[in-house]
Each structure stands twice: as C-alpha cells, then as structure tokens.
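1st attempt posting a full record on here, be nice pls
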Amino acid sequence: MSVKTQNERILFGLKVKQLRQTQGLSFADLSKASHLSVSYLNEIEKGKKYPKEDKLKALAEALGVGHEQLASTDLSKSLAPVGELLQSNFLNELPLDLFGIELSKVVEIIANAPVRVGAFISTLLELSRNYALKEENFYFGALRAYLELHNNYFEDLEEAVENFIRQYGIAPGRPINGGRLKQILEEHFGYEIVEDGLDEYPELLKLRSVYLPGNKRLLLNSKLTPNQRAFQFGKELGFNFLDIQERANTSSLLRGRAFEEVINHSKAIYFSVALHIPRAPFIQDVRAFFEKDRWDGEAFLSIMKQYDATPEMFYHRLTNILPRFFGMNKLFFLRFIHDPAQDTFEIDKELHLSRRHHPHGNGLFEHYCRRWVSLSLLKDLHQMQQEGKYVDTFVRAQRSRYIGTEDEYLCLTIARPAYPLPNRNVSVTIGLLMNDEMRQKIAFYEDPAIQFREVNKTCERCPVTDCKERAAPPTVIDKRDEWKRIQARLAELNR
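the predicted structure (as tokens):
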C-alpha cells in the first residue's frame, strides 16, 4: 500500500470516527470488535495513522462496511465540505505549527459542523477575493500574529548575535564598522559586493539591494546611506550565520512565495538590528531617557545616532526591548509613507502588541486622521522642504487620546526623507498605551511641552464637526446617523 498523505490520513480518520459514532460504538467497543488497541484507533481518528491492509479489513468488518468502501476517498455529504477545504490547500498554507496547532485538530473542529464552518471559510475566501487579498497577505498577517504572540522578542536570535560577535571578534563599541561587516561577507562567506550594482537597472532603483545566489553577488543601490548599507550587510550575515536556505533575494519582500520565506526574512532583519544595537547598552540608554523629567527630542535622537541606526532600526529595537525589559507590552508601531504630490498617506508596516490598537492599516481607502503626530509631522517636514530647508530627521512627541474611548497613548514619532525613494517622506511611530504604572515609568509624560490632541482613526469615521485638519467628510458617521433616524421613525410608526 502506498504511503498516505496527511490529508488522506485526516479524511480517513474522520470517516472512521463518523462510522463509529453513528453506530454508537465506544473506542473500547471498536477495539474489542477489530482486535486493534484503543490507542491505535485513537491515532487513526486523529489522522496520525493509516492501517495496513490486514488491519484495514479488520476495521471495516468491525464497522460493518465493505473494505473497499472504507478505503475509498469518496466522502459522505457531511464530510464533503471538509474534503473540498483540504483540496483547496487553504489550511495547508496557514503556518499552524508556529502557533502550536495541529492541522488534524482544525479539521476535526470543522468536521463537527462541516456545513456551517465550511460556509464560514468560504465566506472568508470570498472576502479575500473581493478585497484582492493574495496569498502573501495571509503570510504577512500570520507573521504579525507570530511576532505579537512572542512580544517581538526572540532569545535564540539574541544568543545567535552574541555568538556571531564572539566568533568574528566584533569590537564592543558602537556604531559598528560597516566595512568590517563587508569584509566578513567577502572573506568568510564568499560574497562579491557591488556598491553601485543596481544603478544600471532603473526598474530596481526602489530596492536597496538584490542578492544573486548563483555567484554570491550582492548588488547595492548607490543612493543608500552608510547606515542603510551596513544594515544590508548585517541582514546578509544573518541569513548566512543562521544557515537560512529559504529566503528572498531582494532587500524587501516584494511577494512572499511561502511563509517560511517571510519568517526567515524577519529573522534576518532581527539579527541585523540586534547586531547594530546591542541589547545591554541599549537598555541602559532607554532607561536613562525615560528617567528624564522633561521631554527631550534631541536626547531621543541621540540614542539612535549613537548606534548610527536608521529610524526603522531604532524603533524595531524598541519594540524588542520595551515589552521584555520595561513591562511596556501594550504598544503599537506604524510606518507611514507620504506622497506629497498626491497628499496621500499609506501605512506599509505595523505591529500591535497585547491587542489591536486604534490606529492601524484599514485597507478601506479612507483618510487617516490628520491630527495624528505620524501625519502632522510629515506635513511639517514637507512644508520645510518646500521652503528650501534641509531636514534629515525630525522628532516629536504627542499625547493622543482616541475620541470615544479612555485610551491615551504617548506617541513618539520620527519623520525623514524616504531614501532611496524619490519624492517621498516616511514617519515611524511607537505608541505606548498609558496607565498609572506607565506614568511612573516615564518621568516626562506630563511635560507641558508635549502636545495633547484628541484623535480618531479616519476622517470618514470621526464625529468632530469643527476639525480644522479634516481631509474628507464624515461619510460613515452620516450613514450611521441616517440609519438611526430611519430606525427611530419606523419605531414611532409601529407604536
């Protein structure tokens, strides 16, 4: 008999379970009739075992069905939706193992109410098609969930970085020498690094680097800043030192071909960030900053500059360290891209720890609230650029209270030009949900120099009537109010 696939074992187990339960047999009853152990029957129903020919015949006889009928891939009406779902490969694309979930358990839940659950899954698939969600959207969503599950902190990666530093004699001082990282790539991993390797390919100028595995050439964008270049070197070292095989060859994931590729990309980024911003001194720097009794934007930026880090590297490290070592695990991270020519704002990266916080990418083509410091700082940066003032990095703090809730966040935002993208600006924001405990941990929280603003998610969902920053009418609110008026009138007529 040929080796059965996981899906075949799962469906066979469900058939056996259904037949056993239909006949009112317990595991003990079926064990006695088939001369198969209870534990073996349990493994069959869980989809972990498939019986050999002699045991299959004994099981079929005990269940009162023909041998061929039991072995057939034909399913009953109630199990047919489960078979269709498995054949669609939808469940197999989900990285269930990372969350400690067995595929057979999910299928068992579906099998207990196949019509209803199948309809629900079909609805999800239909929604994904209607909103043009592709496979990679599921992968990136699963990655965010995985990072949030672990509070974006991974001790094994921290230890790997420490081992790398010891093995290659990286000096303890920071910023780290990018030339040294380049040398390690060339001498120990056989890389050929082409500093302006992307310049002759105009289609690739939005990328920071491209790796060609055939000849181990790393093509760089010549417009990269020194710290961006050093970060790319660190990421390539991460791929090699962690012995990652399944990987993307572009600096950013253009499309996730498999979840393994997406999570490995995340590991290489983590490795590079931790390499450039060592854990112990960074914790000391952040603790000293939070102990200041006044908000000091320059002191905040000085931490970043001390490690010659980009704002994205700096904020990535904050999301690693704050939950684990400061107990600040209720936070969000957002990165906005601003196109001044179109005056559009787009969230292209986000992370939420402990829960889904108010500001997030909504995919509804609505106008994000312009009161957020993430957006107002970008507007100010563009204004300064129009006035001919050069600004590299721009920082601001804001206390943001979300209208209609008690939730208040301390938002720390850095805005900068979007290298190497032309005519774009970027802001990164970390928002810390405030409570009495957090107010004690951040001494400068009530500094009057920090702007306080009531904010919302999008203009379309905001009831504030006198908002000077409004970019679109409150259409969602208007429709809701209209529905309430209709309901009130209908209730009045039915009295």
